[in-house]
Specification:
The structure is a single chain. The protein is mainly beta and 150 residues long. Helices cover 0% and strands 53% of the residues. Strand 6 (63-67) and strand 7 form a beta hairpin. It is globular, with a radius of gyration of 16 Å. The relative contact order is 0.22.
């Protein structure tokens, strides 16, 4: 299969996500892709979500789309700030529009406490913190989980 996301490794076994499922696979059957986390970039398939309140964040070209049940907001991606650790998924994304700025902080969720959406049995390998600052609105923070599989 392609598009398998490894969210944890333990004793030669990997906890993987593919489509809407999670499970364990022996790592000898998987080949690491070193091109997933390129400097100054975010994988095109990055998809984040949160509950309480419900929200989603995804990339569309050079933009980010933040959606809630009430609204959708298109933000221009301005910068991707890498972690100095080579091939680390930890990084920040800065985006904005006329209404303000969004800073997204992505970091690996450590095993065994992967990120959970609180609604499914899926484990997510990335946690996200979204910080909103803006003209005419109160600053706020949202937390959630991210995946790389479409």
């Amino acid at each position: 299969a392609k598009g398998v996301e490894v969210v944890a490794v333990r004793s030669g076994w990997g906890l993987v996500n593919t489509h809407e499922r999670s499970g364990w696979v022996n790592m000898r059957y998987l080949k690491e892709r070193a091109d997933v986390w390129q400097p100054g970039q975010v994988p095109a398939t990055l998809n984040c979500l949160g509950t309480e309140p419900f929200w989603s964040l995804r990339q569309v070209g050079g933009n980010l789309v933040h959606e809630t049940p009430e609204a959708s907001r298109l933000l221009q991606r301005r910068a991707v700030v890498d972690n100095p650790s080579q091939h680390s998924p930890a990084r920040s994304i800065v985006a904005g529009d006329e209404g303000g700025r969004l800073t997204v902080v992505l970091h690996p969720a450590p095993y065994p406490a992967q990120c959970s959406d609180g609604m499914s049995d899926r484990a997510f390998g990335l946690s996200a913190t979204l910080l909103f600052e803006g003209a005419g609105q109160a600053s706020r923070m949202e937390n959630g989980c991210c995946q790389l599989t479409p």
